[in-house]
Design goal:
single chain, mainly beta, 5 helices, 6-stranded mixed beta sheet, elongated, 6-stranded antiparallel beta sheet
Length: 408
């Protein structure tokens, strides 16, 4: 096993982190609804949320919006907060100081209108919101506010999705934060992480204990052909400790065919299934007693046709440096599936590896040509359990347990 845990900065430098995208809530579709749009602005009473009401035959329509009129130093992640009774919001317009309209959408629950990208720093914006009662009477509320300057400290972010790519059915949405988000601040951040799937599938976010990563998954693997739109809208968002998110990140991706690898230590074999049908059985050699492989539900995180395993920096004189072909990463600590020509005699019989799943060169090449990032890999029977967070591990717990990690 290669003991390597890359920092966020190092991973980003290698291009493993792509721009971010979207959010969810427990078992809820975090989609947006498109409102109609109109124009113009007049500030309300300074220093308070703007409230307007209209009495009509159908009852009074009351509309309250935020930010408060003339509010200063508003984060560039600002949403137009909406509270309406006796009707519904039918129009939201946000314009910058030059009168240019800002794109955005209503949250599905109607609680706010979210700009499509962070606002600009030190700019004045004007919002106009129209609510309509059941009798057709309208109420309009207006406000202006000014955004803050560039924050002094930021939270670094990353998204392990590349726009336009196709992933395996177990691919979680993985978001990384540096430094990690503290528990008290996670709900606000989670509300700004949006995921939409087509066809629609329920899903939720779950945080690792350190708050450095959050995963989004469904109760079961994604359906083949799913299209996923993700926006991690944390650019300028207060993330705790005086920090703000460094930028928005987004991706639109697809989910490919169902392809699974199931490794059993008892038989020393890998069973490969495509669309739930066995397509190949491969002899393997797992970790020897002193360096056992981890058992658990993992995901192919990274693929390299050729690489070097080097443990001399961590293990000193007992370490090793070896050229490796067809390596597929399963954990941060260095568990891979890879070609091991030196152990072909042991494959299917005994465990001799440093923790990796050794396969023959021909089988490694065949697997490498079939797999996608996000394909599920299950290892069982080694006696060493996978540590949660050591790799993309959301499938290593039950759906009920996974949901407990949501901040909402």
């Amino acid at each position: 096993m290669v003991h390597l845990r890359r920092s966020l900065a190092a991973i980003m430098a290698l291009g493993l982190i792509a721009p971010l995208a979207a959010c969810g809530d427990d078992d809820a579709k975090p989609a947006f609804a498109d409102p109609a749009a109109t124009a113009s602005t007049t500030p309300g009473a300074s220093g308070a949320p703007v409230t307007e009401s209209t009495s009509a035959a159908g009852g009074p329509v009351t509309l309250t919006i935020t930010p408060a009129a003339d509010k200063k130093n508003v984060p560039v992640s600002a949403e137009i907060g909406l509270k309406v009774s006796g009707g519904e919001v039918t129009s939201v317009t946000l314009t910058d100081a030059k009168g240019k309209a800002v794109a955005g959408k209503l949250r599905e629950d109607g609680s706010s209108w979210v700009p499509a990208k962070p606002l600009k720093t030190k700019q004045t914006y004007a919002a106009k919101v129209v609510a309509t009662g059941s009798d057709g009477q309208t109420t309009t509320a207006n406000t202006t506010f000014t955004t803050m300057g560039a924050p002094a400290r930021e939270t670094g972010t990353g998204l392990y999705l590349f726009d336009g790519n196709t992933y395996g059915v177990a691919m979680p949405v993985v978001v990384e934060f540096n430094p990690g988000i503290k528990k008290a601040d996670r709900a606000a951040v989670q509300k700004r992480m949006f995921v939409e799937t087509s066809p629609s599938q329920p899903g939720t976010w779950s945080w690792t204990s350190s708050g450095t990563q959050a995963y989004y998954r469904a109760p079961d693997y994604w359906q083949t052909g799913t299209e996923m739109t993700v926006r991690i809208a944390v650019g300028g968002l207060p993330t705790g400790g005086g920090r703000h998110g460094d930028q928005d990140r987004s991706a639109k991706v697809k989910i490919g065919r169902k392809f699974e690898m199931k490794v059993d230590n008892a038989s020393k074999k890998m069973t490969v299934l495509q669309e739930d049908k066995v397509v190949k059985t491969i002899p393997v050699s797992l970790g020897k007693k002193s360096t056992p492989s981890s058992s658990g539900h993992m995901v192919v995180m990274e693929k390299k046709a050729a690489t070097v395993f080097d443990t001399t920096d961590t293990d000193g004189a007992s370490g090793y440096r070896t050229d490796i072909e067809y390596a597929q990463r399963l954990t941060w600590s260095g568990q891979y599936i890879h070609s091991a020509p030196w152990s072909t005699g042991a494959q299917g019989r005994t465990n001799v590896s440093h923790g990796c799943v050794n396969v023959s060169p021909s089988n490694a090449r065949w697997l490498f040509g079939k797999t996608l990032i996000g394909d599920p890999v299950t290892v069982k029977g080694t006696g060493d359990e996978l540590e949660y967070g050591n790799g993309w591990t959301p499938w290593d717990v039950s759906w009920e347990k996974f949901k407990e990690g949501s901040a909402l």
